[in-house]
Design brief:
Layout: H1 8-18, E1 20-24, H2 32-39, E2 45-49, E3 54-57, H3 59-63, H4 67-82, E4 87-92, H5 94-97, H6 106-113, H7 117-127, E5 134-142, E6 147-151, E7 160-168, E8 180-183, E9 189-193, E10 197-204, E11 208-211, E12 222-230
Antiparallel strand pairs: 1-10, 2-3, 2-4, 4-5, 4-6, 5-12, 6-11, 7-10, 7-12, 8-9, 8-11
Helix pairs in contact: 1-7
C-alpha cells in the first residue's frame, strides 16, 4: 500500500523533532484515487457532541425533524463548542462496522492494510515506538459548518498512542477552513495544515489539536480517514469529549 519511494529513516528523523509529521504521496501510485471515489458514496451519519454525550444521527431522520428539534440541536452543539467540548461532522466508523471483515473494495482493502505487517513496521520506524498493536479508523466528511474543537485524543496516555489523518481531499482552498490546527499546552496556536490528498498526518496523541470550522462557501468535502494506533482493543469505548482546557 505504501509508496515504495518513502525514506523511512528521514521521516523518522523529522518525526522525532516534535512528535508529528505530514507525509506527502504516502500511498503507492493509483491507490488514493479509487479510495476517494468510494468515500463520496459512503452512507454517512452525523457525529456530534451535544453536551449530554456523543450523538450519531441519520441525516434522513434529521430531514424529518420539525423546526423546534433542529433549533434545539443547534443550541446544544453551539453550547458544547463554546466550552471546547464540541464536534460535528459526517462520519463512518469502519472499525466498528467492519469488525468482522472489511469488504473487498478500495476503502475496505485500505482499512485492512492499516494493521498489515509492512504498514505497522513503517509506522513503528517513523515514530520510533512499538507500543501499539492495533488501529481504530473512521472515514470523515466535513462540510460547511462542521468542526472539531480543541482537544487531546488520549489525555491519560493509556490506550491511544499515535493519531493519524490520511487525507483524501482532492481539492481544497485554505480559506475554506477545515485546517488541522495544533496548539501549545497553554492553548496558543502553532502549526496548521490544510486538507490534502494522498497525505498522512501522524502525531503523538499528546498534541493538542482541532479541525477549524469549515466555511459556508467551501465547495468540496474534506475527506479523510482518521483514527489512532492503539494498544489493545480498538473498539474499547471511545471518549471524544476530552478538552484541552481554557
Amino acid at each position: 500500500m505504501l509508496n515504495p519511494a518513502l525514506d523511512l529513516d528521514a521521516l523518522r528523523t523529522e518525526f522525532a523533532r516534535d512528535g508529528r509529521i505530514r507525509i506527502h504521496n504516502v500511498l503507492a501510485p493509483g491507490i488514493a484515487e479509487p479510495i476517494a471515489e468510494e468515500m463520496s458514496r459512503l452512507p454517512w451519519k452525523v457525529f456530534c457532541a451535544t453536551g449530554a454525550g456523543v450523538a450519531v444521527i441519520d441525516p434522513a431522520e434529521m430531514a424529518g425533524w420539525d423546526r423546534a428539534q433542529q433549533i434545539e440541536l443547534q443550541r446544544a452543539l453551539q453550547q458544547s463548542a463554546s466550552r471546547a467540548e464540541g464536534f460535528a461532522y459526517f462520519g463512518y466508523r469502519m472499525s466498528e462496522t467492519w469488525q468482522h471483515g472489511a469488504p473487498d473494495t478500495p476503502l475496505g482493502r485500505f482499512h485492512r492494510s492499516l494493521t498489515a505487517p509492512d504498514v505497522m513496521s513503517a509506522i513503528r520506524t517513523i515514530t520510533g515506538a512499538d507500543t501499539f498493536d492495533n488501529a481504530f479508523a473512521q472515514a470523515t466528511d466535513y462540510r460547511p459548518g462542521h468542526y472539531l474543537t480543541r482537544h487531546l485524543d488520549d489525555p491519560k496516555g493509556e490506550h491511544r498512542k499515535f493519531a493519524f489523518v490520511w487525507g483524501f481531499t482532492q481539492r481544497w482552498d485554505p480559506d475554506w477552513g477545515g485546517l488541522l490546527q495544533f496548539f501549545t499546552d497553554n492553548s496558543q496556536p502553532t502549526n496548521s495544515l490544510s486538507p490534502g490528498f494522498n497525505t498522512l498526518d501522524l502525531f503523538d496523541v499528546r498534541h493538542v489539536h482541532s479541525v477549524t470550522l469549515v466555511a459556508p462557501y467551501s465547495l468540496n468535502p474534506r475527506h479523510a480517514v482518521s483514527g489512532w494506533y492503539v494498544n489493545g482493543d480498538p473498539l474499547r469505548p471511545m471518549d471524544y469529549t476530552h478538552t484541552a482546557g481554557r
